[in-house]
Every structure is written in C-alpha cells, then in structure tokens.
Amino acid sequence: MFNGEKLKLYIKNNLGKVFGGIIGLIFGILVLSIGFWHSILLVLFIFLGWWIGSKIDSGNDFNSVFDKFNKDKW
Fold first, then answer.
1. If exposure means fewest CB atoms within 10 Å of the residue's CB, which of 1, 27, 66, 72 is most exposed?
2. 62 contacts 56 by C-beta, under 8 angstroms
3. Residue 43: which residues within 8 A CB-CB, separation 6 or more?
4. Domain ranges of the chain
5. DSSP letter string over the chain?
6. At what angle are helices 4-13 and 15-34 packed, to 10 degrees?
7. What pTM did the predictor assign?
8. Rounded distance, CA 69 to CA 48, Å?
9. Are 42 and 34 in contact (CB under 8 A)?
C-alpha cells in the first residue's frame, strides 16, 4: 500500500537524487521533443535569465548587471 510518510522521508533523505532525477527527466523530455541543441540553448537561456534575476534581486539594478562587461570593452 502507498505510504506518504515513507515517501516524504525518502525525499528528505535523498533530495539530491530526487532533484537530479527530475532534472534528468525534464531534459530527456526536452531532447525527445525539440532536439538536443534546442534543449541546450533553452537551458542556457533559462540559466542566463536566472542569473540576471538573481543579480537584480540582490539589490543591483538592471544596468549594473551589464556594467562589468561594458567596462573592459569600451
């Protein structure tokens, strides 16, 4: 029979494995549905959006996120 408490305990004790399995499942579905390179590009854009959002959440305004890239180039 299904025991929800045992499932919660397993997830709590193996959070990395569960999270990795979910990420692998999502990536596998993406590869099968839109292809490998499109999936890689999508994951890259998601990571870039997460990175920019975390910089803005930490108190930086939108322009200061890109200032360190523009400082050396110009």
1. 1
2. yes
3. 27, 30
4. 1-34, 35-74
5. ---HHHHHHHHHHTHHHHHHHHHHHHHHHHHHHH-HHHHHHHHHHHHHHHHHHHHHHTT--HHHHHHHHHHHH-
6. 90
7. 0.65
8. 14
9. yes
